[in-house]
Amino acid sequence: MSQFEGREVGIMRTSWLASANDPASDFPLQNLPYGVFDSGRGPRIGVAIGDQILDLHSCVTHDLLAGLPETVSAACAAPMLNSLMALGPSVALRRRLSELLDARQASHLTQARVAQHLVPMGAAVMQVPAAIGDYSDFYSSIHHASRVGALFRPESPLLPNYKYVPIGYHGRASSIVVSGTSIRRPCGQIKLPDSGPCFGPSQSLDYELEVGFFVGSGNPFGQPIPIADAEQHIFGLCLVNDWSARDIQSWEYQPLGPFLAKSFATTISPWIVPLEALAPYRVPASARPAADPALLSYLQSPDSARAAINLSLEVYLQSSSMRQSGLDPQLIARSNLRDLYWTLPQMLAHHASNGCNLRPGDLLATGTVSGPDPGSEGCLLELKRNPGPLRLANGETRRFLENGDQVTLRAYCQQPGLPRIGFGECTGTIAGAA
């Protein structure tokens, strides 16, 4: 943890913007996540603070970021985050933004100047925050892998390689959409148990609760990233819902793995939370028992005591009927990022271990994050082992998603003496097939 980060979290500092001091807010002064928004003047980079967005393009134009390196100022004035990501962790920028918004550090004159460049969140349309060149998805929750594996291989749920190598696949970047985008039910080839293959809308549409992390500074082609340096290449984290058509998936995935069952849509939350904001919530990884196979050296973290993040994850479901009746979304699952078998640095270091060149704005995701206990299942597929379907508050039941269902993912770090660091929402509503 840097000196700035230690000072930042060691004192419960407050902002002069009252909404940022609400204990229920996802975006206190200690968070300051990055995103891209449009309030009628085209896409701009912004930072979330309370219920407002600080327009960084406008801050640059009005000399509020004077004194920072020219490369940082130019990146803040860009329409997407890739240039800022390429610079790596920007402690100087984060310090300046914190000073501008801090109730003790910002003078009344400074507060008045900064207030002119705040945009209400309700007046902005959030965008995909970066030009995502590539997207890779992992399978890093052993609890998810074990439950799904047991559906197909009850005697041996995990494949022999699971505890040795972070499993992943290359996803489709073009169909990544921002929270709030409707998700059209995909069509595909399906093999029913008692008939031949047919083509039609998926009847087994599922969500997947995941956490994504954006690559900051990349690596040259052919040059691996040592695990000791991996976190320096992570710009920040977001929420990911990697929608899955399970009936299409079960027919097509052999022998090469996920394809059309995954590529139709992936939803991400609009705000990217910097690793610096999550520093106080770092914990040891908990899902690898001492009796498991020893890690190969390139996957051994030099700081195992802080390898994981105590990040609470939640899934909410609201059917069309629930919305019409005024019923709130129902919490249907809760898990935690600390329960992953493979950590974020291990995933990134493994991805680049063969010399694969990661680039600023590339997105990596954890795969479904599930916990060990009932109620921590990160997708509906895992519930197939239960005797009955998921029951909603209005009496409806679900094995898989129906048209009109709205799925919302939320995440936050919170513990006594520290502020709540939230991720906002990752929401998608299922629409009928084309």
**Contiguous runs where pLDDT drops below 50 for at least 5 residues:** 1-10
CATH class of the largest domain: Alpha Beta
CATH topology of the largest domain: Fumarylacetoacetate hydrolase, domain 2
Just name the CATH architecture of the largest domain. Answer: Alpha-Beta Complex
The CATH superfamily of the largest domain bears the name Fumarylacetoacetase-like, C-terminal domain
User: What kind of sheet is the major sheet?
Assistant: 8 strands, mixed
The fraction of residues assigned to DSSP E strands is: 25-35%
Question: Care to count the β-strands?
Answer: 26
How far apart, in Å, are the first and last alpha carbons? 50 Å
Q: What's the alpha carbon Rg, rounded to whole Å?
A: 22 Å
Protein traits:
434 residues, 8-stranded mixed β-sheet, 11 helices, alpha+beta, Fumarylacetoacetate hydrolase, domain 2, 5-stranded antiparallel β-sheet, SH3 type barrels, single chain
